[in-house]
Every structure is written in structure tokens, then in C-alpha cells.
Design goal:
The chain is α+β, with helices and mostly antiparallel strands and about 290 residues long. It has 7 helices and 17 strands. It folds into 2 domains: about 80 residues, Phosphorylase Kinase, domain 1, CATH 3.30.200; about 160 residues, D-amino Acid Aminotransferase, Chain A, domain 1 (2-Layer Sandwich), CATH 3.30.470. Strands 8, 9, 12, 13, 14, 15, 16 and 17 form an 8-stranded antiparallel sheet that branches. Strands 1-2-3-7-6 form a 5-stranded antiparallel sheet. About 35% of the residues are buried.
């Protein structure tokens, strides 16, 4: 039986429709600043799939869409070798088109907003903060999801206006998930700097969907490396695709397609960092009673 074409091809994943379910296939494609690169990161898709599957397996009390990452559980013809290790079978939901970003530290676009206006997601912060500083408490900084262009960072008040019925629960759930993951990672000597969650609706129930807490959707750093970087006033060496963001910014890329070609060294370093954080995450065996 021939494998049909994907129902949807995203920046880094292909989605196949299977009745009331979907198969999410993680490719080795890379997206940064919402632009898909021509270069692949070999093995990246399998790393992301294993990480997400592991986090979902730890979530016993939080409703989510994940069913299985074992190809033996996929219906034919999707139990084919090309999907082995890089696909997950999930429940089909109606996606909520907001990225639920949580920031524990001042990094990335959050820091750039703070530099410009002393705010984060429209909320005033105290003056004198530096890049990489830990926030007094994690901040919920949503974005309007855009599959083809740049996501639009907005305030929680703007999200509440656009989505009044679900925004409070989305915020509460995202902050709770961030807290669970942060505590688990800190026992392994790692800070979760920021991450994004996505949610969908199934028969009126809110489910956690997409990939979760991967180096494609999050920033991680070893605590010792973080503290050393702050002491020495150096860039924070995160275990995620920040390596690529830093490289393309250093060469002056305008963040519009086409993306620049990546040197082999940058690809190898990215592979190593993804593998490093994967090993740490897979060593986590519990997220606590509230998970």
C-alpha cells in the first residue's frame, strides 16, 4: 500500500491524517526566525520525537494528544521503515492558534522587547536587567501562531480579548507545565530558560499538543555554564538551536528567506547539543505528583 502525501507540511514536521487521529513526522529540517533552512540537521527529527514522547509519558494527569511513538502501533501503511523513530500517533484536535510561551529568564525576543521598552509582553519590568537574567517569576508571553511567516508576540491582555473563554486556562496550564519541567530539569543541573506550548480542543476538552520541551521549542542551559557565563559576561551556551540563531545573526542575515547556508561546524555543534539535552531529559523519571 502506497503512503499518501502529507495532509500538511509544516516548517519542520509533516502531518498525515488517519481517521480521527494524526501522524506527526519530525523531519531533519531546521527553522529559525520562522524561516526554513536548506541545510538539514541529520538525526534531529528522531531526537525531537524521542524527547517529546518521553515528556508525554511522564504526564499522567495533564490531558494531552499523544498516543504512541512505536511504529508497531501505527496503522498500515504508516508502519513503514521511513517513519521508524521519527513519528508519533496523536489524537486529532482543533488547534488553538496561539503559542503559549513561558519565559523564566530574559532571553531572545523577550530581551529585545525589554531593551526597547523595558517591558515583557507589554508588562513593565524593573530597570537594570541584563540579557539572561532570571525573572522574579516565570512570565506568560503569548504569540499569535503563523505557519508561514513570523509569529506575532502579543500581551496576555490582547490574547484575552481575542480568546476570552480559554485564555485563563491556557495561561494557568502553561505556567504549571513550565514549573513541573523546570523543577525536574534543575535536579539534573539544567535551567529551562523558556519554552512554548500549544493546545487543541477535542470534544470541549483542552489538550496539550504538538512537540513539548524540545530544543526546537525551548532554551536549556547547564546551571554551571549559565553561572560561569554571567560571571565572565559571555554569551550563555544553551543546548538548543540558539547556536544557529547566534551564527546567522553574526553574519548579518536579514531573517528573511532564503536562509543562509550553514557551515558544517555549526551543524555538528547543533547535533551535539541536541544529543546532550536529549540524554539529560531521558534521565528524568518523574515530574512529581501534580503531573
Amino acid at each position: 500500500m502506497a503512503i499518501p502525501s502529507p495532509q500538511y507540511r509544516g516548517k519542520v514536521r509533516d502531518v498525515y491524517s488517519i481517521e480521527d487521529k494524526m501522524l506527526l513526522v519530525s523531519s531533519d529540517r531546521l527553522s529559525a526566525f520562522d524561516v526554513v533552512f536548506g541545510d538539514l540537521i541529520p538525526g534531529k527529527g528522531k531526537v525531537l520525537n524521542r524527547i517529546s514522547a518521553h515528556w508525554f509519558s511522564l504526564l499522567q494527569k495533564i490531558p494531552h494528544h499523544f498516543l504512541s511513538a512505536e511504529s508497531k502501533d501505527f496503522p498500515a501503511p504508516f508502519n513503514a521503515p521511513e517513519f521508524e523513530g521519527r513519528a508519533s500517533l496523536v489524537k486529532r484536535t482543533e488547534r488553538i492558534d496561539f503559542e503559549c510561551v513561558v519565559r523564566g529568564f530574559l532571553m531572545g525576543s523577550g530581551y529585545k522587547e525589554y531593551e526597547a521598552s523595558q517591558t515583557l509582553a507589554g508588562e513593565k519590568l524593573s530597570s537594570g536587567l541584563s540579557k539572561g537574567d532570571k525573572l522574579t517569576e516565570p512570565a506568560f508571553t503569548p504569540a499569535v501562531k503563523n505557519d508561514t511567516g513570523h509569529d506575532e508576540n502579543i500581551s496576555y491582555a490582547a490574547m484575552l480579548q481575542r480568546l476570552p473563554s480559554w485564555s485563563p486556562l491556557l495561561k494557568e496550564s502553561s505556567l504549571a507545565l513550565f514549573s513541573l519541567a523546570s523543577k525536574a530539569l534543575e535536579t539534573k543541573g539544567v535551567y529551562l530558560l523558556d519554552t512554548k506550548f500549544e493546545f487543541g480542543l477535542l470534544e470541549g476538552e483542552l489538550l496539550l499538543i504538538d512537540e513539548i520541551l524540545t530544543p526546537d521549542s525551548s532554551r536549556f542551559v547547564e546551571i554551571e555554564a549559565y553561572e560561569k557565563a554571567l560571571r565572565e559576561k559571555k554569551e550563555i551556551p544553551t543546548m538548543d538551536k540558539q547556536i544557529i540563531r547566534d551564527y546567522v545573526e553574526s553574519i548579518g542575515w536579514n531573517k528573511r528567506a532564503p536562509a543562509p547556508k550553514l557551515p558544517d561546524e555549526i551543524i555538528r555543534k547543533t547535533q551535539a547539543q541536541y544529543k546532550k539535552i536529549e540524554d539529560i531529559i531521558l534521565s528524568i523519571t518523574t515530574l512529581g505528583d501534580s503531573a
